[in-house]
Model the fold of this input.
Amino acid sequence: MKTYELAIIGGGPAGVAAAVYAARKKIDTVLITKNFQGQSSVSDNIQNWIGEEGINGLELAKKMEDHARAIAGDVVSIIENEEVNKVQKTDETFTIKTSNTEYLAKNILITTGSRRRKLEIPGADKFEHKGLTYCATCDAPMFGGLEVVVIGGGNSALEAASQISAYASKVTILQRGTEFRADPVTVQKVLSNEKITAIANVEFLEVVGEKFVSGIKIKNKTSGVEVLLPSSGIFVEIGHLPNTSSVEGLVTLDQHKSIIVDPRTQKTSLKGVWAAGDCTDGLYKQNNIAVGDAVKALEDIYITLKTR
Ligand code: NDP
Done:
């Protein structure tokens, strides 16, 4: 079986950026990914991708994929529709076990991103896809003329509220904290929409309904007063969890299971393994940052390959 110089695991913005740089540096690489749709592919309109005033998430993902495929040549082999389950090290070689087969590489770049954090309260699982959803872009049109809530106080929640307001008659943002994590400019813009209001300092108790969501029981964390807020839909946007189970035990993770990297080089705790993007312990999670981190990693991989 062939041993590649480098395996890139993941096809989001970080993985694609790494593939582009690997191709240009002529590093014999395999990129293994389930698909090329990073987390932003669900965004309606991304306005902070540098060089684009506004672009649909799927369109951006397609552009990235096209870029990788166009530049790959015979230097980067692209393997799509495969999920990496485990990465193991034997002597100087890494074995990458996927759902279908396995690959060998001398070095690894992990760009596996993150996934949505789930709401863990009674009723949340039962009503998922029955009024409770984690995808505003996918499901907002189903709530035309209805009153809904959005849970979360970050950029994702605020942007979701804005998207949903195009359909719903009223959107109430509920957050557990007292301060929004979202950018102030976003908060100001979203809350100036007369369909959108916000309630802070909330404890989430239970999702209620019969066949479909009819409301959510919440408690004011200061006063202790509990209310049942009627709602036809619940959009959950409460952050993300790193996709790192395939490298658990291989490299050092932090308490959130993010891969600890040296931010100057993107090196992990294990020689021959780098990581970039949302799967790392980098403080800020952004497409632009993921791409920059991946480029940094490729520069470091190249220097390491040439000088070690
Ligand atoms: P964030 O981590 O920024 O915000 C998560 C929100 O969910 C916080 O309000 C947090 O509350 C709350 N929360 C976390 N866990 C729970 C829980 N178990 N129950 C209830 N509430 C909970 O996540 P986002 O997904 O919003 O954003 C992730 C990253 O992506 C950020 O860096 C963000 O800036 C970026 N992003 C950027 C966009 C853009 O620039 N256009 C668009 C979307 C995301 P608390 O504050 O109390 O912890």
